[in-house]
Structures are given as C-alpha cells and as structure tokens.
Amino acid sequence: MYVHVRMCVYIYVHVQIYIPTHTYIQADARKLLQTCRSNFGLVRAIIEVPASTNGSAWRIWTAHSDGRVRIWDPQNVVQVDEINLNVPAAARAAVLCLLYYAREDGEGEVWAGTAAGQIWRVSLRAHYSPLQSEASTASNHVIDTGGYTVVEMERPHLKHQGALRCMLRVGDDVWTGSYSGEIFVWDALHADKAANSPEPSADRMLQRGHGAVKAMAMLHSDLVLTGHRSGAVQIWTIEGIRQSWASGNASVKCAVEAGGLAWTGHAGMCMCIV
After folding, report:
1. Cα-based distances in Å from 121 to 40, 69, 191
2. Contact status, residue 108 vs residue 122, Cβ threshold 8 Å
3. CATH number of the domain where residue 250 is located
4. Whole-structure pTM value
C-alpha cells in the first residue's frame, strides 16, 4: 500500500515538539515558540537524555555536522554544554546519529555515530553523581572532553567502512547500520571490555553489502526492521535471524511501528504500510 504524503517529521517530548533545526513548537498550542540560529552546521540527530538518575531533570542532545554534540536545557532553551568528537583535531567527521542507553543499575550513556564510521560512548556517570567516571581500559581509545568521559567502541573484527546512519537498542544490545551496508550487533552490557581482551566477544556482524542502512525500528518486542537505500525492507528476530525481505522502488528514509503495522517513509514522497 502506497500513500502520498508531505515530508514532515516531528519528535514529541513531554509537552513540546522539537524539530532538528533548533526550532520547537508547543504541542498543545501548535505555535512556533523560538528558532535558535547559529553557525553550528547541520543538525543531524536530536534525542532526550535524563540529567539525573531519578528522571527529574532532562536535557536535549543534538548532533551536528561539525563533529560536535551540543546539550541544551529545554526549559530555558539555552546551550549548557558541548562535546567535541573531532579526534584527531584535524579530522572533522559529522555526528549523524545518537542513542541514549539506560542500564538497570540506573547509570546511562549516550552512543554517537559519525560519518567516519566511528562509535563513541559518552558516560553520564560523572554528571549523575559526585563520583568520577571510570575510563574503560587503556586499550580503548578514551578522551575527556567537557567533563565527559568518551570511549570509542573498538573491536578488531568489527569496523564500519561507511558513515554510521542509525542505531537502535534491541534488548541489552545495540544494533548499528551504515552507508556501506553493514549491520553490527554490539554487546552493550560488556561494552567496556578491552578491544584486545582474550575473552570471546558477543559483538558480531549480521550483514554486509545489501545496500546502505537508512533506518531501524523495533516491531513489537521481538522483531527488528531495517530499511535500505535500495528500497529494501528486512525483518529480523532480536537474535539476528532474518525472517523476511521485501523490495521497494525508492530509498527508505524512516520507519516506525504503530497500531500493529510497520510504517516506512521513502524517497519520492511515498509511504509504505506493512
């Protein structure tokens, strides 16, 4: 089923809607409140992240084409912090996607994917309590920026060759998809394991070479949808076993599960309902 629609995406957060241009709208009043204009470059992703372990305070994190992540106070609409992921300094890789990962022990971290195929984990521990965040291990690439400890996910057998386009939490794992077609599954609970650890790693590759991965979405609690530039849509179990595959005529841009159906938005101003 194909339906022609206007291309417009809003992200609902509490009583406000944030749009990835630093524009936000009051959901009830449907009025534009403010537009934040700056020279930050393109805004590539935007998420809500708790600023306390009990969820009493929140921040908005935005990913930018200048290789930085900026943190905003949504109540006062001001930038309160900034994280520079341009490492080394001479290399500028846009940050394309963000994911908040909450752990059962109350701690959390933000995963950031870049145009260079890197994955950075930003620890929130030091900002939740007076305790300082622990570096992963000397074997992993660790940087300290703006008071945040940032660790690169490094595994000898896993490396995205293209820009990282999307990330999705699936159970305790994190799935990542890139423009070069790889789909990787990361054991996020043991992400602090050293890159050269002799212990076997549960991190693995599901797929490579079936077209750029443009979107990921959970379907119910036991299936994952991946959408591709070729127009293909694949359905996987959470264990990483492919269940079905369908082909479309236009690149998949976004996907979501709603009302028991999978909705995918495509280039060419069409939407598929599966």
Report:
1. 22, 12, 9
2. no
3. 2.40.10
4. 0.80
164, 146, 20, 169: CA torsion to nearest 10:
50
Residue 251 covered by a domain: yes
- 111-131: per-residue pLDDT in tens? 999 999 999 999 887 654 433
What is the biggest distance separating any 2 CA atoms in the chain, rounded to whole angstroms? Answer: 57
Considering the domain architecture, whether residues 201 and 227 belong to the same structural domain is answered as no
Same domain membership, residue 36 and residue 151: yes
Per-residue tokens: 197 = 């650890």
| CA angle (67 as vertex; 66, 72 as ends), nearest 5 | 90
Residue 167 lies inside a defined structural domain of this protein: no
* Structural domain total, the chain: 2
Question: Mind giving me the DSSP string for 110-148?
Answer: EEEEETTS-EEEEE-HHHHSSSPPPP--TTS-EEEETTE
Do 40 and 147 lie in one domain? The reply is: yes
CA 43 to each of CA 29, 47, 62, 127, 155: distance values in angstroms, whole numbers, following the listed order: 25, 11, 7, 24, 28
Q: How far is CA 65 from each of CA 17, 189, 242, rounded to the nearest angstrom?
A: 22, 29, 33
Give the tens place of pLDDT for each residue, 25-63: 555 555 666 777 667 778 999 999 988 767 678 899 999
